[in-house]
Amino acid sequence: MRSNHSRASRTAAAVAAAALVATAGALVGSQSASAAAGCRVDYSVGSQWPGGFTANVVVTNLGDAVTGWRLAWSFAGDERITQSWNGSHTQSGAQVTAVNAAWNGAIATGATVSFGFNATTGSRPTSPAVFTLNGTACTGSTTTTTSTTSTTSTTSTITTPTTTTTTTTPQPSRPMIENNFPVTREGAYGDNRFTVFRPSNPQAVDRPLPVLAFGNGACAHTNNSEVTRVLTFIASKGFVVVDTGSVDGSPNGVPSGSPIPSLLTDAITWAEREQDRSGAPLRRRLDLSRVATAGHSCGGLEAMVAAQDRRVSAVVSLNSGFFADGSFGYPRSEVGKLHTPALFMDGGSSDVAYANNQATYDLATVPSVLARHPQAGHTGFITGSQLTDGMTTVVQFLDMVLNGNQTARAYILSPSGLAAKAPWTVTTKNF
């Protein structure tokens, strides 16, 4: 009997020990989950004027994908937002919160989202010191939180969070000039006053597409065949170009020969409608905070007058300029109404617009670039052997102003950039 009792005791102890081991094993069994958060904000003032400015904000998500974003910051001065796009905003004193629109709330890891706004200020605008994305400070690094979950036989859990910080080196954004997208040329949907040049597959472009409204030489408002090569080049770099003139040169009810700047502002309005049109290839693919006007010769006058529109953030005048006698109804005093950075290009002393271009640049008070190629004459940038050089300059300037791209900025403003490429001469001011 004693021997049997001992065996029973040993058996019970073994069962208890096994149960204890099983329980202990459950206690130390665990699952870990990690979540990363981090962001970088590129804030730039695209243009400014007495009493106000336009700002562009690009948010890069360095952490896990988010399905809705809320960016917060405080202004350093008296800035007050009057209008925003690609999102909505609230402001209380200096504190601002911007939230996504219905269509751009998702930001994948490494992806960007952009929005912009106009604001008033009594002083020079400055960049806010700190931004937070969904509560996480945007420092250019990521913070990873790891949660370890341990399970017991009674389903209780023990969670121990640990936090590590990994520094992410910000990568320079790809210069637009390096792109080479296939281009589609088509009539503007619902408006035969315009022809559209765009990347054939907008979804393949890794960023929203800036918009360029373009005016043709001789203020040609029906036939735009002369600028097809030029605008195809620009569109291949990731722009949507809306040009005056019907796609097949057919009559569209618009007379040619004199500037009609409202055509270019109407082109911008068309793009705004196309952004929201159901089934449009460009639906939700346009960046309406990055809009520019440009034009050649008489079209350059159209571009400079249209650039007074507050939706415009950059202007390019090719072989153009205001006349001293106010020809075409626009005197040189119009230059003082520009509120955006401007690029003035001409083809040297053989260019009939040479003197007007120089005078227009001299009168400009906005950040300005005067780029001159003495072999281009009046049409070399459009149809001559200087086309690639000229349009490369245009794309780099727009990339610098609209996107804040530093590589493009060096090309335009550095002594080792365009200025070092003979026979170009470059003069700048207010940058």
UniProtKB/TrEMBL annotation:
This is Cellulose binding domain-containing protein. Residues 32-141 form the CBM2 domain. InterPro entries: AB_hydrolase_fold, CBD2, CBM2/CBM3_carb-bd_dom_sf, CBM2_carb-bd_dom_sf. Residues 140-177 are annotated as: Disordered. Residues 140-169 have a biased composition (Low complexity). Residues 1-35 form the signal peptide. It comes from Saccharothrix hoggarensis. It comes from the Bacteria. Keywords: Signal.
